[in-house]
Design goal:
Mean pLDDT: 88
Strand order of the largest sheet: 5-6-7-8-11
Number of strands: 18
Low-confidence stretches: none
Shape: globular
Helix content: 25-40%
Structural class: alpha+beta
Distance between the termini: 73 Å
Number of domains: 3
Largest sheet: 5 strands, antiparallel
Radius of gyration: 24 Å
Length: about 450
Amino acid sequence: MTDDVITLFVEDARAVSVEDAAKRLGLKFPGKLHEHAQPCPHCGGTDTFSFNTKKNAWNCRAGGVGGRDGIGMVAHCEDLDVHRREKFLEACSIVLDRPIPEEAERESEDERAARRKRLEERRRQNEAESEARAISEADYREKERNKARGIYRPLAPLRTSSLPYGRFYLGRRCAGYPDATWLRVGADVTYWHGQDERGAPIALYSGPAIVAPFIGPDLELIGCHITWIDLDRAPKYRPLLYGLTKEGIAAGLVPWPLGDRPPSAEDLEAGLYEQLATKKMRGTKKGGLIPIAGDPQARRWVGGEGIENGVAFGEWEGWRDDSFYFAAGDLGNLSGPAEASSRFAHPVLKKPDAKGVLKPVMIAGPMPKRDQEADDAMWVGDQVDELVLLGDGDSERVMTAAAMARARARHARPGRLIPIVWPQAGCDFSKMAAEAEAGT
């Protein structure tokens, strides 16, 4: 009977949405739409953690983990190992905001029948809601993929377009660009952010951008990656954009107009405005990768996180004819999720716990998660016998090194060589290329 009480407790917890779980945790809702990025309560960082109330999903890029349930999100944020029963039940308790059931008292036959009926109804409800979410998510993904195709397909290839922005951008950042047609360029690509009073998305900005495809194993376009360009803003050559947060709206502030002075340091510190990323992905990256140059049927692949790093490295080695050059959307896309048991304490970084005691920051380990899905990370062709992975020297080194080791382990096959190539400390390959081009 106690087992049934616990089972109902767990089923109730499974029914709690990611949005409601975020409220239980006291997470921020800084976005005006569905995506809410912020520092990870467990791993730290600036915008490494996010949850999406429409997709009922969460993700931590620093930890290399994510999921589609409130229990997993709570467990990650509160450093609870869901593989241990007592920790899993503690996560359920936090999600439900009620204590774990104690030893149940003796029930009457009627009480037992009523409880078992509630349990069966809860299970059926959870199954129905899960099926409905899956259908809704599939519809949403297809709509997003169609939007990505609509952005990418009308644009001209970067290398032959009459628009010079993309070639200038890569020339300055990477000392060159590929003689390939994967990357495309547009003069007026819209940056959508926030909603107006009627709930319609706001076109915050429109300007030149490089648009790259995400492709799956069948080479079909499943998404696109957009990099906006401002050639007057060295050294990154990307525009400076700000968005009004939920707190800013509550304070009665107006959206930041493009071309105006940046918001004050006080307003940024108070979370009334936020600096926006100038790279976005549409459609889906799940299981996909960004092609840069070469034939995906090549036996040698070269790539890592970021288009610029892949281009810079390709320029450095002369775009070998026997190689396919690619980029991953981020480290999670490159390496996939980590096995929980491989997590380890950062040797230096610490953060205060709920009592203010400094504890080591826990890092997603080098072992891939067991029984993960094939599309939990980018695909690699079966014919590939050399996979050159490019590290990023200006990201946090321990977390990045663990992710790169995890990528190597995940993509390992008998006879496949997987070297990891690192740039100089404190640099990425694009910065090294730009400095070499400038003679510094």
